[in-house]
Structure formats: structure tokens, C-alpha cells
Amino acid sequence: KGLEWAVVFLVGLEDGYVPITHARDPDALAEERRLLYVACTRAEEELHCSWAAARSFGPSQRVPRSPSPWLAAIEAAHRDLVRAQRSSSRIAREGLVDSRKALGLG
After folding, report:
1. In the list 5, 25, 61, 69, which could disulfide-bond 57, CB 3.0-4.6 Å?
2. Residue 5 to residue 84: CA distance in whole angstroms
3. Considering the entire predicted model, what is its pTM?
């Protein structure tokens, strides 16, 4: 599995949505992380991640949002991947391993 679409858009990557608020125990968080990993790995060429600074519920309720705590790990993995693609050095490969560890994948 994986690399199913050239471009993938992941939206709603907000704290409380990813991971979902009710995922409190380690197994539930691991499943949330696995689902995000699966979504990310479906992109063959481009992965676009976004979150809303605020959400509206009804005509008068506007709720401020913050980014998912896992977005930083996705951004770090992206930086490391770009670095690894530019250089086949040992340091770049180690950075990619560190990012996988940050994502809880190795």
C-alpha cells in the first residue's frame, strides 16, 4: 500500500482533531498516529497539510483552534527527506531516521 495518489490534501490537522480528543490511552494514540501515517504515505509526489486558525459553529460561535501537535513531526520529516534527497551523506540518512523516531515509527 501507499503512493496511491500524486497529490494528497490533509485538512483539519488541528489539536483535538488529530489526534482526536478522546484518544487518551497509548493504544488509542498509536492508532491515531498510524492513521495519520497511512494518510501521509498515500501521496506519491505532493502532500499538503493544513489547519484552521478558527472554526465557526453556527452563526455566532467562533472557536479559535491550534495546530495538531503532530504537525511539527511532519514538518521535520519533510525537511529531513528534502535534505536526504539532496545528499546521500550519512548525516542526512541519520536525520531521516531521527524523524521516523519522532513520528513513533522506528
Report:
1. 61
2. 22
3. 0.73
66 in Cβ contact with 15 (< 8 Å): yes
Q: Which residues contact 92 (CB under 8 A, 6 or more apart)?
A: 80, 83, 84, 86
Q: Looking at this protein, which amino acid is placed at residue 85?
A: Q
Selection from 61, 104, 98, 66 nearest residue 79 by Cα = 98
Give the Cα separation of 106 and 24 in Å (integer): 22
Burial grade of 39 (CB within 10 A; 0-12, 13-18, 19 or more): middle
Distances in Å between the Cα of 13 and the Cα atoms of 1, 36, 38, 88 are: 23, 10, 14, 31
Cβ atoms within 10 Å of 8's Cβ, excluding its own: 18
Please check whether residue 20 is in contact with residue 59, taking contact to mean a CB–CB distance below 8 angstroms. no
Cβ 42 vs Cβ 8: under 8 Å = yes
The CB density around residue 95, as the number of other CB atoms within 10 Å, is 19
